[in-house]
């Protein structure tokens, strides 16, 4: 392919991703597994090259070895948070409008899980101060881990190659990536999504 053709292909893919994002709230198809796979493929097609040694997880892959600090500065291994239970990792930031809108829904879902259900974990691409300020206004009971945004941050290892937020990953009880989702959960959507 000629260089101009490559640029055109990337521009078309980026335009398609932008169009998909613009009708996100009005298009229920994008909330289906097929829609999510198409959106993930469009994001991947326009993603920059990953840094050397970084591998973005895909469904079926084991959860990457991710160790991050919590709000108290304690380093936490993601796989050690709820061994033997499914894990829903939600990547968010205090400055992300759709992230903020879905937090109450994630909190509701987390509270309904009990001790054997899906464990929700927030992965904030943010500063400790930004997260603390946000959580003072919108408290959640589930664990929050901190990460500095960048081309090789934990969300990239979880498959978020474009750095779009919010981004969620469902990990099964055996520690394998089961699903990935770009965009916020609508009211009640996370219940069905986490069951599959």
Automatic annotation (TrEMBL):
Instruction: List the record's Gene Ontology CC terms alphabetically.
Output: cell envelope
> CDD domains under this entry?
TlpA_like_family
Main subcellular location? other
Task: Extract the GO molecular function terms from the UniProt entry.
Answer: oxidoreductase activity
InterPro entries membership: Redoxin (IPR013740), Thioredoxin-like_sf (IPR036249), Thioredoxin_domain (IPR013766), Thioredoxin_ResA/DsbE_sf (IPR050553)
The Thioredoxin domain covers 57-196
Entry keyword Disulfide bond: yes
**What is the superkingdom listed in this entry's lineage?**
Bacteria
Mind listing the GO biological process terms from this record?
A: cytochrome complex assembly
Keyword Disulfide bond part of the UniProt annotation: yes
Q: Which UniProt keywords apply?
A: Cytochrome c-type biogenesis, Disulfide bond, Redox-active center
Q: Which Pfam families does the protein's record reference?
A: Redoxin
Q: Where in the cell is it found?
A: Cell envelope
Q: What protein name does the entry list?
A: Thioredoxin domain-containing protein
Please report the organism this UniProt entry assigns to the protein.
Pseudoxanthomonas suwonensis
């Amino acid at each position: 392919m000629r260089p101009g053709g490559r640029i055109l292909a990337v521009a078309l893919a980026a335009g398609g991703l932008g169009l998909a994002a613009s009708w996100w709230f009005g298009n229920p198809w994008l909330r289906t597994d097929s829609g999510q796979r198409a959106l993930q493929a469009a994001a991947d097609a326009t993603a920059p090259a990953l840094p050397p040694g970084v591998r973005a997880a895909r469904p079926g892959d084991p959860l990457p070895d991710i160790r991050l600090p919590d709000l108290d500065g304690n380093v936490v291994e993601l796989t050690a948070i709820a061994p033997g239970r499914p894990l829903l990792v939600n990547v968010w930031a205090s400055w992300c409008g759709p992230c903020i809108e879905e937090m109450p829904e994630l909190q509701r879902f987390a509270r309904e899980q009990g001790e054997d259900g899906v464990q929700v974990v927030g992965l904030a691409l943010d500063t400790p101060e930004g997260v603390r300020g946000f959580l003072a206004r919108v408290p959640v009971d589930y664990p929050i881990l901190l990460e500095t945004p960048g081309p090789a941050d934990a969300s990239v290892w979880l498959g978020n190659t474009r750095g779009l937020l919010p981004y969620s990953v469902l990990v099964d009880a055996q520690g394998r990536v089961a699903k990935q989702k770009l965009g916020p959960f609508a009211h009640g959507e996370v219940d069905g999504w986490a069951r599959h």
